Queue: 4 jobs
Job 1
Amino acid sequence: MAKLKLDLHDIYNRGGQIDAELNRIVQEALAKKIALVEIIPGKGSGQLKKTVLRFLNQGHIRQLYHRVEKDDKNFGRIFIHFRFK
């Protein structure tokens, strides 16, 4: 199974760029019909993870994917699952 990976460590302090990269990875997954995207906000204080989850919870983004999974073994990792017919 193919998956995309987005590591946000390098842009953690650039809010606008974070949203742009999250949007880009979601659109790329849809265009290539890739069922799994791994996002790595890192462990840190948890603020970046909250930013990612807020982005994914927006109505126009929420309708694009099937579900979000927070990795229970690694606090600094989020998976987005897509379902294609």
Note: The helical segments are 15-32, 47-56, 59-62.
Job 2
Amino acid sequence: MGKKNYEITNNIRTLRFFAGEMTQQQLAEKIGASRQTIIAIEAGKYSPSLDLAFRIADAFERSIGEVFEYKIIKE
């Protein structure tokens, strides 16, 4: 039961690049989070709350589906 059968990926690094090389710190300040949180989300080590996910999407003026992707992993 402990094994996840899904994966949440994101395009935050790419979106930061296309937003004028926005730094992790700049994004964190814009959405009211810590730089460590942004690092963990980008690395796939932390899944943000729905509220935080929407704030990230809003920061890039994108839909949440353009920033995050939910994939079901077949066993």
Note: The chain has a mean pLDDT of 94.
Job 3
Amino acid sequence: MDLLTHVLVAYLLTAGLVGLQPQYLAAGALAGGLPDADALFFPLARRFPILRHHGITHSLFGVTLVAVVGGVVAPHILPGSPLVYFAVMEVGGLAHILQDGFTQFSVPPLLPFSQRPLQMDADRAINFVTLAVSAVGFYLLLGVERNQVAFQVYYLTLWAFAGFFIAYFAIRLAGRIAIGRRLRALGRFHQPVPTGNPFVWLILNETNQGGRVRTSWARYVLGRGIVAGPFTVDGPIEPTAHEGLPRSEAEALEWSYPLARRASRVIESTYHFGEAYPEGAGGWVAVWYSLEFSAFGRSAGVRVRFPPAGGPVEVKSTFYRPRLRAI
């Protein structure tokens, strides 16, 4: 989930719990966004992995610690009850954890006591539908309407946005449950991957055996079944010895895969796929792209080019529009 959505959902929850009291609305909304402040720990995260993104700040321990500090400090900034400050900040932080766990990127809610992840695979981590709605929400609630319209109008606007998010999460969750049941019937696929459309899913199977990664995926539309695929590709994790230029798509993918994994953590850490096509005079281009990190028809990936005239292989991180339109 994007930062704007985290903050807006926390704002709406706080309004539902304690009403339109500015000091508590500000505290709850702040707590809804604070877990993503772990991005500031990036220089330390290599040495202390618990500080990585989606680390300790995305845990019950982390959000409770923030809520306790808020309950002590906030009353000295804006008058209010320490217990209410604690409650709204706790709820805002928990909402952040649940929203991130709702996506395909996991959070560890029990850190530092357990690494067990929460991951529902019901939505993309960044969905531009919720981002757009959240941006409009803040524009209306804090810009156009606040102190400018009748209380009832503002209150109805709050409930309209709350209704949108309730319906959105319900549709996404219902789709996830439906695709999960269907996966068991399909058998060969074990992992659903959400797309930007709640009715369109990628279903896949990935194995890592003998130093090779093999990925098969298909496009699944709720109510219609598989509409494209399955497509399959595999490659070695470590480079293999070779000379000259690739002579086929299979060789281009085989030779490029280890290079792509080393060039991008996105490829290494998300479900991914590869395509290759010939270039003039015997050259080849292979592109490995994420099936999860995508937007507007393009996906984060790595392009590996084997120049027609020989010479060093060119490796470049890129955003790519897959020919198979996987995203």
Note: Residues 193-320 form one domain.
Job 4
Amino acid sequence: MTELLIPGLILGGFALVSSTGLYFAAQKFYVQEDPRIGEIGGYLPGANCGGCGFAGCANYAEHVVQEISLDITCPVADAESMSRIARILGIEANNTEKRVASLMCQGTHDKTAEIMDYRGITDCWAFMLVADSSKACAFSCLGLGSCVAACPFGAMEIRDGIVQIDEKFCTGCGLCIDTCPKNILHLRPLHKRITVTCHNTDKGVEAKNACISACIACMKCQKACTYDAISIDGFLAKIDYEKCNNCGACVDVCPTNAILDLGKVYDA
């Protein structure tokens, strides 16, 4: 019995000494968390979407407390929440407007022809291993929903061969943009309703043959814009949202309806 007791006591003694040492080491090197981190975390959405560039909301809260800055904003939190976070930090809130995702494509089944019957994995990146597009327009939305799967807010769905975005649920986190292999999603300020819904950089005739709503680089929009907000780059119209005044002149003159007023589209 003694032969069993002695080793047990020795092991128990080692365990006691080790645990005591660990306890005092933990007390000595313990760093108390800044209580502001928890306060700020309470105003963050907790979605851990990574749209801010950090792994999660807790990491973002630590960053803003350490930097005492909102140079990086949470794309999901509303303006009121960001204002409260700014007050906790003792700084002024950035008056940044909410941004939403927009699709630069109108490649529905009635506007661009299907040239391939794809029956593989329902994933845009998987399809890209097979071909550039299943449609006549090689720049069009593949409609296989990689962006839909990436959206944690239920703001996207596939309808009529392309992704449709519900701006009520879109937070502007940008995860869909990083997921799209065709690079046809972008973020725009919510109140900037005029947008180019095409990403085709082919010349006019080729683009029009591929999709009836393609931009043909006719320059009518550029000439109609009195705010110098539209330029033609690579046979494709582009809008400078800082200059755009939502006047709609470009929408009125576009012969292919490649430029839309999304305010009218969503209100319809």
Note: Strands lie at 99-103, 156-159, 162-165, 185-189, 194-196, 230-232, 237-239, 259-261.
